[in-house]
Amino acid sequence: MKLSELARQTALPKSSVHGLCQTLVHLKLLKLNGDGSFSMGPQSVRWANVFLAQSDIVEAFHEAVAEAVGLGAYTLTLSHLEGPEVIYLSCRNSSAPLGITFRIGMRVPAVFTATGKAMLAAMPPRELTQHLPSEWPGPVTPTSVSSLAALEKEMGEAVIKGYSLDNGQLREGMFCIGAAICDRPFHPVAGIALSMTAAEARPDIIEAMGKRVRALADNVTERMGWAAA
Fold first, then answer.
1. Where are the beta strands (DSSP E) in the chain?
2. In this structure, are 100 and 8 located in the same domain?
3. What is the rounded distance in angstroms from the CA atom of residue 77 to the CA atom of residue 119?
4. Rounded to two decimals, what is the model's pTM?
5. Is residue 187 one of the residues assigned to a domain?
6. Number of domains in the chain
7. Range of the domain at 152
8. Fewer beta carbons within 10 Å, N or C terminal of the chain?
9. What is the pLDDT along the chain (229 residues), one digit of tens a residue?
10. 229, part of any domain
11. CA atoms within 13 A on the CB side of 39
């Protein structure tokens, strides 16, 4: 985000925002990019990691994953929405050749991810608009969802099934299944995804693993003391 946009959103004088940003850059909480925009700096991720290590939902995710049987061959991730992006809170990467390694603090467009679609599908329309990109992101792969209409169709299917699909939209050769975690009806706070190779993603496997991911998300929900969907 650029300085002018930060000043507009905070309603602060541009000179004040500039001074604050310079301080945050010095502390490595922000990073000044080549185009003059700012993004999260490495220190902010380190601080976040310390907090998230103590976070109840991350702990609940770890406990649920540790007790899950038959999922050891798959990558499992926990993420949440921030604006139009998904941020990964915890990851258990497998040895499968997915072509990507998930990391805590990693950000990707929500509309291309299984957890992003699942969380968006669980929201009421008014809240949904706050998490849709102002400009549709460029495709990451040839199968990346290309329009709001196409996304709405995928979200409709996710509501019916209880889980969403990423059929290589984030990474070619990777297939992901996601389910939302809600602390109350229509209020998703996180999402869980299971990732496998596209070659493994046969219809019967997708259906079976979809039910497992939904159950895993419900397990975390119950551990948090919330009512499962």
1. 30-32, 38-40, 75-82, 85-92, 107-109, 164-167, 174-184, 187-197
2. no
3. 14
4. 0.75
5. yes
6. 2
7. 55-223
8. N
9. 888 888 888 889 888 888 998 998 988 888 889 888 888 888 777 767 655 544 789 999 999 999 999 999 999 999 999 999 999 999 998 888 888 889 999 999 999 999 999 999 999 999 999 999 999 999 999 999 999 999 999 999 999 999 999 999 999 999 999 999 999 999 999 999 999 999 999 999 999 999 999 999 999 999 999 987 6
10. no
11. 7
- Measured CA to CA, the distance from residue 32 to residue 42 in angstroms comes to 12
Q: List the one residue out of 173, 59, 177 whose CA is nearest residue 118.
A: 177
| One domain, residues 41 and 86 | no
Of the candidates 54, 57, 52, the residue with the CA atom closest to the CA atom of residue 226: 57
8 Å CB contact between 123 and 130 = no
- What's 35's domain CATH number? 1.10.10.10
**3-state class of 223 per DSSP?**
helix
In a domain, 228, yes or no: no
